[in-house]
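In the design runs reported in the main text, the only information available to the sequence generator was the tokenized backbone. The following block is the verbatim input for one such run; it is reproduced so that readers can re-run the procedure and compare outputs position by position.
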């Protein structure tokens, strides 16, 4: 993953071969690789400034990450043997076989790299992660590197489908399978779990996240001072809670989070560390945020999948006739959109104030700071059938003091007025709102709406 700018230039070599060089300007930091991904999902630049605010959180990276080397595309030279030309064409044809047309690890289309020791075709980004396990996986470019006949024959004998049948044979239903849009940490640990630890070839190797009980220490951000301190966490499916303790020997937990309302999502750029995990839960029907991380990537990803396992078993009991495919999207979720907007109060006479907004399913929450533990207010976003609408602009008699690109959220009870800094932000927010509003409400949504309005209305 990453954001790159691509430039090209052609150079005539001494041998008369024209070589086209493509330079990718990529971030060398893992934090930026993950962070830019989340920023692209939320469509805002606010996360950049947060890096300067989290000096108390040590930076932990994925060890040994090396970006793939620069690509140099060249026409076959006169020194290339006929066998090498044939082998390169054979490898290209192998990508066209069923299963090989997408990355074996993240699903990205048109892979241009391959592990010639594992027999799988991968994208450029995942090829860089394979270099972290070089004793197991050695990668080559399909288009640029020379291939021997034995290597091509091995690739032909394995391929992505056969590899998945071996290394993904026992992946638990709840285990998160990252895609090319996920941050580097999730993809790195997925690759390590498959090929390095071979966790999905034996159920016994999945105990850290499948046992129904997990206990350990995580660095947790303090609600008031923003410092990260070591806290003991316990996840218990039997008790139906995730809890943490302020002191290592404390008997009573500082907080107990019911599995029924629990969510976890990786937020590396927001928290300021590649291993940053945001945990949310409902307390008195209001959203509470907890920000944690661990120095070891495997540990924090195991916690993440342990939470998913607990949620999966909880939902199986709560909805016994629901298919597994219906439950999986409910285990954990990424926020639909996050970013800064300005808002005014319910009387619409107060000045507009800049706030951090998070759209989480049907809850629109706003915070004074993006790492606040509690939201200043929450707005329920229903469906169009229930009278909800998102409109561009503000009423004629209302004008934001700074940002000019307004949004009006129409609800059955009142209108909510927001303003965005740019027209692009305005369009992205309206698209996000419409995604929710155009989705029919489920019975549990109506139940959530009724509980929502029993709380103090947002200010």
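Verbatim output:
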């Amino acid at each position: 993953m990453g954001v790159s700018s691509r430039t090209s230039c052609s150079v005539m070599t001494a041998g008369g071969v024209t070589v086209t060089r493509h330079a990718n300007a990529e971030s060398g930091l893992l934090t930026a690789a993950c962070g830019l991904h989340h920023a692209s999902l939320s469509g805002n630049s606010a996360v950049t400034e947060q890096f300067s605010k989290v000096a108390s959180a040590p930076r932990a990276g994925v060890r040994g990450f090396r970006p793939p080397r620069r690509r140099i595309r060249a026409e076959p030279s006169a020194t290339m043997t006929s066998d090498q030309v044939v082998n390169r064409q054979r490898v290209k044809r192998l990508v066209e076989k069923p299963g090989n047309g997408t990355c074996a690890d993240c699903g990205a289309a048109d892979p241009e790299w391959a592990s010639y020791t594992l027999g799988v075709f991968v994208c450029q980004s995942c090829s860089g992660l394979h270099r972290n396990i070089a004793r197991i996986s050695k990668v080559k470019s399909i288009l640029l590197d020379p291939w021997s006949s034995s290597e091509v024959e091995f690739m032909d004998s394995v391929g992505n489908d056969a590899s998945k049948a071996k290394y993904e044979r026992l992946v638990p239903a709840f285990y998160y399978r990252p895609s090319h849009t996920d941050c580097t940490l999730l993809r790195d640990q997925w690759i390590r779990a498959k090929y390095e630890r071979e966790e999905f070839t034996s159920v016994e190797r999945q105990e850290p996240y499948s046992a129904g009980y997990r206990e350990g220490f995580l660095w947790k951000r303090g609600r008031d001072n923003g410092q990260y301190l070591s806290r003991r966490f316990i996840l218990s499916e039997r008790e139906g809670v995730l809890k943490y303790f302020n002191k290592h020997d404390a008997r009573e937990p500082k907080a107990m989070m019911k599995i029924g309302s629990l969510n976890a999502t990786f937020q590396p750029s927001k928290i300021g560390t590649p291993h940053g995990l945001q945990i949310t839960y409902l307390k008195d029907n209001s959203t509470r945020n907890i920000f944690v991380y661990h120095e070891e990537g495997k540990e924090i990803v195991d916690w993440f999948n342990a939470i998913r396992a607990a949620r999966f078993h909880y939902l199986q009991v709560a909805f016994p006739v629901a298919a597994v495919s219906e439950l999986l999207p409910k285990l954990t979720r990424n926020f639909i959109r996050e970013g800064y907007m300005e808002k005014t109060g319910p009387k619409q006479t107060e000045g507009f104030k800049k706030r951090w907004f998070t759209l989480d399913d049907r809850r629109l929450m706003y915070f004074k700071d993006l790492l606040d533990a509690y939201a200043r207010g929450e707005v329920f976003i229903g469906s169009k059938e229930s009278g909800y609408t998102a409109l561009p602009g503000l009423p004629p008699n209302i004008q934001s003091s700074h940002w000019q690109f307004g949004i009006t959220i129409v609800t059955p009870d009142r209108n909510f007025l927001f303003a965005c800094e740019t027209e692009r932000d305005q369009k992205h927010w309206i698209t996000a709102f419409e995604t929710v509003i155009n989705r029919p409400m489920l019975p549990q949504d109506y139940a959530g709406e009724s509980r929502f309005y029993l709380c103090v209305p947002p200010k």
